[in-house]
Amino acid sequence: MRRRIVAGNWKMNKNFQQAEDLFDELVDLLKNGQNKDTDVIVCPPSLYIEMAHDLSCDEEDGNEVFYGVGAQNVNEHESGAYTGEISAGMLASMGVEYCIVGHSERRRYYGETDALVAQKIESLLQNDIIPIVCIGETLEERESGKAFEVIERQLEEGMFNLKPLDFVKLIIAYEPVWAIGTGKTATPEQAQEIHAHIRKCIQEKYGKAVSSTIPLLYGGSCNPKTAPELFAQEDIDGGLIGGASLQAEDFMKIVNA
Ligand code: PEP
Predict the structure, then answer these.
(1) Domain residue spans in the chain?
(2) pTM above 0.85?
């Protein structure tokens, strides 16, 4: 059976105190009501990774871990003169287990290409960090009937260079660009159609044993109302949550969906 995963992407939100309060609220809720079949991941701004890691487990409670810690971005190089950047080795040394790669905001505002995404994935895997790789089409691409084509290109150029043993470590998030931060969630049918296509492409490339184990998350204005029906779809194994991960109660409802 595939892992069920809900990951929160806080993006560039919350000051230090607000972040601490949100972690505290989240831990309280996770302690008391977490659906244990679902893995929870929190991706705060990098400045708060140490705090996220410290608060993620309860020593009194037999070291129970409430959520995994993820980063929102990584540089593709190991080290060197790259002012302002953070490497996968640095993230690993801070206890980071996951990292978002290829988010549409990074593709759009920072010009990240599929080739760069491939390099970042390689660097993360070398440091035993699980990449959460985002793919998805823009509204224009969907309306001109190119959604499948875009997804295929992003898979091919960003991930299909990997050997099967590395590819199986990935988590893939389908995030239609038109749904991110817009309040316009994809319908369960729209999301399932693309998820099924992603799984089919993976099956063609790596075989059924691999395609049936890769967790495929949906992301894009997912909220407590829309999550249950989305997550009930055959090929949707959870969600990557932006806005709704900034409210502990909403995030928790999505986790339990
Ligand atoms: C995201 O940024 O990954 C995301 C899914 O954002 P939102 O939930 O706010 O649309």
Answers:
(1) 4-256
(2) yes
